[in-house]
Amino acid sequence: MSNDTGVAIGVDIGGTGIKGATVDVGTGELTSDRIKIATPEGARPDDVIAAVAELVRKLPNAGDEHTPIGVAFPAVVKHGVTMTAANVSDDWIGLEAEKLFEKALGRDISFLNDADAAGLAEYMYGAAKDVAGVTLVTTLGTGIGTAIICDGVLVPNVELGHLEIDGHDAETRASNAAREREDLSWKKWAKRLQKYYRACEKYLSPDLIVVGGGVSKHYEEFLPLLDLDARIVPAKLRNNAGILGAACRAAGLHGTAGERVG
Ligand code: BGC
């Protein structure tokens, strides 16, 4: 789907907040204010879908049916169905979520995993722009999201945030939410990140690791403490990556594995 204005709407649903904006997909710039609302308590489907519809209505271009809409969601998404639910209600598991969003928004949408959206955006406009080889984009937020992009092709739904490390689901120890919950110093958190990224390297041998999520604005506090084989850099798009990637996918600018674009 595409439109003449090069503008698309991106919505990024997270365990804690839902963000949306109108985006110039040519430049990767937001063309509206970013609207952020809290994820409804319990993150149940009906509540989240209603909240997204309300948010989208407030954005410029929302009334124009030719403006593509992309929605990024924190779960494995296969053929429009949400397959997992790590930081949202279990009611999402097996739900035809894309169809439900389309019904509420009154038009077709593009629907994808939130970390995949962030990965696409970092590849199109950010810290992984045009990088060759294997890039691992991670988002450190409520959970840990991961995306793998190999020579510009996204491999969707890679869930390395759930690697088992020392008997724990990695994101429960190394996400930014874990840092906040346990009031960890940067040094203590970096130790956990070191273990986490080492495990990722063991299985994937990436050429570049991009560290995203809102906390990446504090990268100077923890990235220098990490010792890895791959180059590791902060994300450029931080909290906007999910919005930008969702908009970009909606505008048809970037595919997934098998559809090499960009
Ligand atoms: C989910 C992923 C998601 C990540 C970041 C994880 O708990 O399993 O699908 O990308 O959180 O939101």
UniProtKB/TrEMBL annotation:
InterPro entries: ATPase_NBD, ROK. It holds the Pfam family ROK. Keywords: Kinase, Transferase. Belongs to the ROK (NagC/XylR) family. CDD domains: ASKHA_NBD_ROK_PPGK. PANTHER family: POLYPHOSPHATE GLUCOKINASE (PTHR18964:SF146), ROK (REPRESSOR, ORF, KINASE) FAMILY (PTHR18964). It comes from Paramicrobacterium humi. GO terms for molecular function: kinase activity. It comes from the Bacteria. This is Polyphosphate glucokinase.
